[in-house]
């Protein structure tokens, strides 16, 4: 009598871990600093935008949900400054207040990259598809806290604490419908595409027609000379 193997099941915590890894990966690469998150996760009853900068993005498709990241003023400025300096900006030209539009724009761009990385991993690892809307950013004062309604049937919400290289704190909150992905057949998750390789392939495709046209022009010239 053979024992039946237990199916591999991916639940809320697995999806959360994948999202957290996207946050650390994108922010670490963008800022060239060390970003890490707590080994403990909180179960929460609702998701909120909190001071000093709250940003959120909705996603839908294979499963629906909401991602919120609440930055303190210190963590937002640290990430903004590290990102801009890595991009080659002069420190004297950088914004010095977290309420600056430039800081909000950078945080929004980083949030967009994080969710984009996450949706790519969902497609490769869970073999399903989700879409996202454009991230929304709000600068909040200490007296304001906004609850975000997710309109989910069986919502599950989690909060994870993140730390910057200088130990400034920001929080990620995830709310999704209760869902499980059960692995029916074995498969190897596709590797993330290498941006450098994609650029090289695109350049190679552009150069190939150019070489062909140059060769045909040379043949036409030789033919005109009777050669």
Question: What does the model show?
Answer:
- With 227 residues, the protein is of the alpha+beta class.
- It has two domains: 8-192, CheC-like (Chemotaxis protein chec, 3-Layer(aba) Sandwich); 197-227.
- It is built from four helices and twelve strands; from the N terminus they run E-H-E-E-E-E-E-H-H-E-E-E-E-E-E-H.
- Helix 1 (12-31) packs across helix 3.
- The longest helix has 30 residues, at 195-224.
- It is globular.
Order of helices and strands: EHEEEEEHHEEEEEEH
Number of strands: 12
Q: What's the tally of helices?
A: 4
Helix percent reads 25-40%
Q: Regarding quaternary structure, how should these chains be classified?
A: single chain
Alpha carbon gap, first and last residue: 82 Å
Low-confidence region ranges = none
Please state the average pLDDT score. 84
* CATH architectural designation of the largest domain: 3-Layer(aba) Sandwich
Short description:
With 227 residues, the protein is of the alpha+beta class.
List the helices and strands and how they pair.
Elements: E1 8-10, H1 12-31, E2 36-37, E3 42-44, E4 48-49, E5 53-61, E6 65-71, H2 73-86, H3 101-126, E7 130-132, E8 136-139, E9 146-147, E10 155-163, E11 169-177, E12 181-183, H4 195-224
Antiparallel strand pairs: 1-12, 2-10, 3-10, 4-9, 5-6, 5-7, 5-8, 6-11, 10-11
Helix pairs in contact: 1-3
Question: Key terms for this structure?
Answer:
single chain; 227 residues; two-stranded antiparallel ribbon; 4 helices; alpha+beta; 8-stranded antiparallel β-sheet
């Amino acid at each position: 009598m053979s024992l039946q193997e237990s199916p591999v099941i991916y639940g809320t915590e697995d999806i959360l871990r994948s999202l957290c890894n996207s946050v650390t990966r994108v922010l670490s690469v963008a800022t060239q600093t060390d970003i890490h998150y707590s080994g403990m996760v909180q179960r929460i009853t609702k998701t909120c935008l909190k001071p000093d900068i709250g940003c959120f993005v909705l996603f839908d498709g294979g499963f629906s949900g909401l991602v919120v990241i609440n930055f303190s003023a210190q963590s937002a400025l640290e990430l903004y400054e590290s990102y801009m300096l890595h991009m080659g900006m002069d420190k004297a030209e950088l914004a010095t207040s977290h309420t600056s539009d430039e800081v909000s724009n950078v945080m929004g761009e980083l949030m967009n990259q994080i969710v984009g990385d996450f949706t790519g991993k969902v497609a490769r690892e869970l073999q399903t598809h989700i879409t996202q809307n454009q991230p929304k950013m709000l600068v909040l004062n200490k007296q304001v806290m906004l609850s975000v309604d997710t309109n989910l049937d069986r919502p599950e919400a989690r909060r994870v604490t993140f730390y910057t290289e200088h130990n400034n704190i920001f929080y990620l909150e995830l709310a999704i419908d209760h869902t499980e992905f059960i692995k029916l057949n074995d498969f190897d998750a596709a590797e993330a595409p290498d941006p450098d390789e994609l650029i090289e392939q695109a350049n190679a495709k552009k150069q190939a027609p150019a070489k062909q046209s140059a060769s045909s022009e040379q043949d036409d010239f030789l033919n005109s000379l009777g050669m």
